[in-house]
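Sequence in, structure out. Go.
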Amino acid sequence: MTTQRAQEVRERLLAAAAELIAERGWAGVSTRVLAERAGVGPGLVHYHFSSLRVLLNEAALRTMSGVVLEGAAHLPGTTAREGLDLMLGKLDAYSGDDPTSVLFIETYLAAGRDAELHQALTRLLADFRDLLADWMRAAGVPDPDTTARVLASAVDGLMLHRPLDPSLTAESVVPVLRRLLLGAVEESR
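Output:
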């Protein structure tokens, strides 16, 4: 198999895995179903990945990493208020029952049973908190490391709660978090 063809098959498998995690749940994805969705033979799943679990982990983490990096990409150079508004405004794209939100929920659940996924997800969240802390440090937010942990937890909580409470939109949440974040900035002056 040529390198380009192999990369195309690998990409199709990863995309199909992310779709299927959101549609069927982690346990509902089989090698056969995944291969059918990707339009390849079942043997190619194990040719490209050492196991179905490894493939699912990589697909989920890749999707989550993309969301995290996109959410943090616009923060550098913004004030605390601007950055918070940008980041939480982007959350409105995730209704809670959309495929990406469901994938997040499924991945958190799976990480509770899979030590490798748990470690990788922990690293991803640490990277996200580091990006937030760097931005907060530059924006003059006091105790940026702890504040980043709390804000990252709030963002995750919003993703997890949105399916149960669709009123958790940026319009309702930003003012509350803005008071918390900006209040800390004002107190430090």
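Check: Residues 115-139 form the longest helix (25 residues). The mean pLDDT is 89.
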